[in-house]
Amino acid sequence: MNVGDIQIFITMSCYMALVIGIGLYFSKKANENSENYFLGGRSLGPWVAAMSAEASDMSGWLLMGLPGVAYYLGFSDAIWTAIGLLIGTYINWLFVAKRLHAYSIIANDSITIPDYFSNRFKEKNKIIMTIAALFILVFFTIYASSCFVTVGKLFSTLFGFSYHSMMIAGAIFVIIYTFLGGFLAESASDFMQAIVMILALAIVLITSLVHAGGLGAVMDNIQKIPGFLDFFGIATPQTTEINGIKTQIIENGAPVFGPAAKYGFLTIVSTMSWGLGYFGVPQVLLRFMAIRKSAEIKKSRRIATIWCAISLFTAVFIGLIGRAIFPVEHLTSSSAENIFITLSMNLLPTFIAGIVMAGILAATISSSDSYLLIASSAVSKNIFQGMLKKDATDKQVMTMSRIVLLLVAVTGILIALDENSIIFLVVSFAWAGFGATFGPIMLFSLFWKRTTREGAIAGMLVGGGMVFVWKLILKPMGGIFGIYELLPAFLLSCIAIIVVSLLSKEPSKEIKDEYEQMRIYQD
User: Fold this and answer.
1) Residue 189 class from Cβ within 10 Å (0-12 exposed, 13-18 middle, 19+ buried)?
2) Residue 510 burial (CB < 10 Å; 0-12/13-18/19+)?
3) Measured between alpha carbons, how far is 335 from 153 in angstroms, rounded to an integer?
4) Contact between residue 82 and residue 316 where contact means Cβ atoms under 8 Å apart
């Protein structure tokens, strides 16, 4: 490493030490009992609830995945994704937050998402709880792997270190941190990381624009690429295979693009369906449950929406500007996800670049610790204590949680061994899984009193299963099947819930009374 690399490494190391310090500070309270460890004792204020929810949700995908899509394919795919996510964020906070906060308290003080579903439908044999916990385990393992890929790409690109060694080292750091402080440490550090992330995006955007000669110069440059700036078209990089990897062709020092492809109505709806995922992602829903007062949710909604709007659109434009400044730097869709790092390292002073790189690390840590914690809580609290050992003590539950956390992390590491993994695609699959498995039943459980336990089971199985079927079997066929798997899986899950609920016996009076109690409580 040269002197500049050492300075960046020191800056990032100081940041990591600060994060560990937060974990140590909260470790005593977090380890008092499982409720504190998994939900923070329902003590989050509006700022921490809002910004920790968004930071844990966005992950390194925001600083690497989304700019990478904009850099490689242009405006349309990235901006419609961002619009869908922004709308989903606002609607989720507007309609779901208050009701879930109230219902999770009324439904036997539920502290995990599987807990809530099981208690909401008063089930005795815990089938819903088990299905929910297993889906959480599967999809959060995939999610965690995307974070490990981000860490590996970050350090290998910055310092030339081995991708695999850096990916594993990053995973070990996250494991240690999550072990220490649980949900409180995670939420407090996520609040700080949300600030670092948005500052990093703003710094890189402004610096890149200045370096490129202003917005006009950027537009003059990239509008020459067919479809690159279209709302209803998409750029088509011309590629050739090199060592089995599709690599963009370069002619006369410039990247080669074919004629713009159409970006039709169905594709737009499919891309915007990213917003549906918000109704089912546990890392956001848990913040609704953990906020200290329902009256503070309105303030949280405003904070979260503004943060998302600034962050998402800034990330898209960074990718576009990156193509104007470094047109041939990244020739594969996987490499394109490093454009944020390339801009930072080449345009910023060393110390500032170190802070910006800490922003990527912040995004990754803020998400991966959430994923590991929620996955481990689903197994230890809902399967181990809920099914296998009902008399398990808090200490035993937390011990099991840490064992599961290690297993999930190791599995995530194995998935992340492929250094050509595309963060955007890995995240999109896990996001679809959560959105289709939990999103529909979350909405129906909060807004339709007639929803039954059988309908809930059918909805989760159809939604989660269809994500795999559509992605692995139907989507490769192309045509109408080429849409994002979240949309059809979400719709089919809704249909399954309605049909099976209407065909099954009405909910008991106790369930209906509790539903009405929730409506009064949340108002």
Assistant:
1) buried
2) exposed
3) 9
4) yes
pTM of the model: 0.88
pLDDT at 366: 61
Q: Is 226 helix (H, G, I), strand (E, B) or coil?
A: coil
pLDDT mean over 336-348: 92
Q: Tell me: pLDDT of 300 over 60.
A: yes
Answer yes or no: are the C-beta atoms of 217 and 244 closer than 8 Å: no
Domain membership of residue 361 as a residue range: 3-215+267-419
| Amino acid at the residue 102 | A
Establish if 49 belongs to a structural domain.
yes
The DSSP bridge partners found for residue 246 are 241
Length of the chain in terms of residues written: 523
> Is position 440 within any domain?
no
Percent of the chain residues past pLDDT 70, beyond the cut: 92
Rounded to whole angstroms, how far apart are CA atoms 92 and 149? 29
Q: What is the CATH number of the domain that holds 343?
A: 1.20.1730.10
Q: How far apart are CA 275 and CA 2, in angstroms?
A: 43
CA dist 241 and 50 (Å) reads 44
Longest alpha-carbon distance in the chain = 74
Residue type, 171: A
Q: What is the mean pLDDT of the chain?
A: 87
* Count of domains observed in the chain: 1
Please list the alpha-helical segments (H only) found in 326-422. 339-347, 350-377, 394-415
Asked if residue 40 belongs to a domain, the reply is yes
pLDDT tens digits, residue range 204-263? 999 999 999 999 999 999 999 999 999 999 999 999 988 888 899 999 888 999 999 999
pLDDT by residue (tens digit) across 168-185? 887 887 777 676 655 666
Q: Is residue 487 part of a domain?
A: no
Q: Are 451 and 440 in contact (CB under 8 A)?
A: no
pLDDT single digits (tens) 473-489: 999 998 889 999 999 99
